[in-house]
Design goal:
single chain; about 160 residues; alpha+beta; eight-stranded mixed sheet; about 30% helix; binds calcium ion; disulfide bond; carbohydrate binding; C-type_lectin-like; transmembrane helix
């Protein structure tokens, strides 16, 4: 009786170990995957983080959170079918939307009724939320957790 429970436990542990190894391996290969589009390379995360930590991750990969410069690039964002951070935040001091490279927002793709939260004192960040539609942006608190998209120059 005890022996059989012991053996079951050993099998369970071996199974969990193999599963962990498998997940680590697949996650690693996924992390190495960058996708070409236009003149940029894009990386989509496989985990969720708050906006600031997402940006840190991009910078460690020699990139930054994605800056959407064109309608084509905006449409490309929808192809990932995930709620993702983009490199856009609203700063209460300036009351303006800023891209991570310091440029101001000119061409925007807000979802219906958005942005609706930027009057709060907190810094507000932007996610791709309504990814089936071209106007897919939503403003949301930066400490929420999301997948994220990094962009770097393909050259
Ligand atoms: Ca871009
Ligand atoms: Ca919102």
């Amino acid at each position: 009786m005890y022996t059989s429970i012991y053996i079951k436990n050993v099998f369970l542990h071996v199974f969990l170990l193999l599963q962990t190894l498998f997940l680590l391996t697949t996650d690693k290969s996924f992390q190495q995957g960058w996708v070409y589009f236009g003149s940029s390379l894009y990386f989509i995360s496989s985990t969720k983080l708050p906006w600031l930590q997402s940006r840190d991750d991009c910078q460690q990969r020699g990139a930054d959170l994605v800056i959407i410069n064109s309608k084509e690039e905006q449409n490309f964002m929808g192809k990932f079918h995930r709620l993702t951070w983009i490199g856009l935040t609203h700063k209460a001091e300036t009351m303006k939307w800023n891209w991570v490279d310091g440029t101001l927002l000119t061409e925007s793709y807000w979802g219906q009724g958005e942005p609706n939260g930027h009057t709060t004192r907190n810094i507000t960040c932007v996610e791709i939320r309504f990814f089936q539609q071209e106007n897919s942006w939503n403003d949301i608190r930066c400490y929420e957790q999301n997948f994220w998209i990094c962009e770097k120059n393909a050259l």
